[in-house]
């Protein structure tokens, strides 16, 4: 009965509603803003993982057994 959330007809319906609500002039601006937001979020996540890797640093290195 339910094959999935994002079927092509659902996506077309959402795009048609967005076109009606925001208009054709505003949609490119909204898409650009959404893209910048996603890119910034990904960059922030990369920064967090780099910071956590460098936080371990050489101080946390295991000592050689004698």
List keywords for this structure.
0% strand, mainly alpha, 66 residues
Could you state the oligomeric state of the chains shown?
Answer: single chain
Order of helices and strands: HH
What is the terminal-to-terminal distance? 66 Å
Number of strands: 0
Q: Biggest β-sheet, characterized?
A: none
Total helical segments: 2
Overall pLDDT confidence: 79
The percentage of residues in β strands lies in under 5%
Low-confidence stretches: none
SS class: mainly alpha
Please tell me how large the radius of gyration is.
23 Å
Backbone shape: elongated
Task: Summarize the structure in words.
This protein is mostly helical and 66 residues long. The chain is built from two helices and no strands. The model has no long low-confidence stretch (mean pLDDT 79). The N and C termini lie far apart (66 Å). It has helices at 8-22, 27-56. The longest helix is centred in the middle third of the chain and has 30 residues, at 27-56. It is elongated.
